[in-house]
Amino acid sequence: MFNSLYFEYPYVALALVAFILCELFCKMKLPSFYFPHAAQFMNSTISASKFLFLLKWLGIVLMVVALMSPVKDEAYELEPKKGHELAIIIDASQSMQARGFDDNNPGISRFDIVKAIVSDFIKKRVTDNIGLVVFGEYSFIASPLTYDENILSRIVSQLQIGMAGKYTALYESLAQGVNLLKMSESKSKVAILLTDGFSTQGVDKIPLDVALDMAKKEGVKVYPVGIGMPHEYNRNVLMKIAKETGGVAFGASSANELKAVYDKIDELEKVEIKNETFTYMNYYYIYPLFVAFILLMTYVYLRNKRGVN
């Protein structure tokens, strides 16, 4: 309890000197009376005088201690919430049902592997405000921006292949991701665009250039990720998206490579978090002040009752 306890006004201790000087030189002037045989009363009053003397000076010392304001600092840290505004864009088209992407579990679909890896990624980004876009023939916002990684992980676990149609509206999904981040005033906006296919002509209603202009205008850095064999996705388009938005394009032909890609993105977009620290001052003057008050009141009561100086 007394660790790091200090006095806010230590110089008030000099007041004790004033009390001592006053005790020595400021004697109370009272009218004097002569009593014969006064010595017989002296022995019975000496012990009472010592007790009252102790009460008085202990009360004075504690009162001065209270005026010195004993205080203790306790530091508190606020949980930081300053990360990126991040849009995760996931391809849920029919092609994502392909299997054999994970050598350890060849029977599982690409989409299920993506969901597991994305969920792990979300859990790492506790300071990011993350939203989720899912696309197929059309795209939709599955989750607005939120810091709640539990809700996001639950939504990701409920995603299904084909829930947005079986084709690939790749550029429309990028525009939807930009729209998700558009209302944010953050200076750091990032989108991770994952796909295993080419944009489907006649389905994708937004041209690539328009989607790129939107991303550049809103300052969104895009990390395109192509999964599957290199011929299964449009590598040139993904590289163009990355180049024009300041991101990096990745390719992953297996679950391990995809996990490494998300680890790399996590590393590239690390945020230096500085915790905000506040100091709360606990004052303890009330304790010596209360005891001093009791002691001095007792002193006054006994002094008046016994008539002892």
From TrEMBL:
The keyword Transmembrane helix applies. The chain crosses the membrane at residues 12-30, 51-71, 283-302. PROSITE patterns: VWFA. Keywords: Cell membrane, Membrane, Transmembrane, Transmembrane helix. This is VWA domain-containing protein. Residues 85-265 form the VWFA domain. SUPFAM superfamilies: vWA-like (SSF53300).
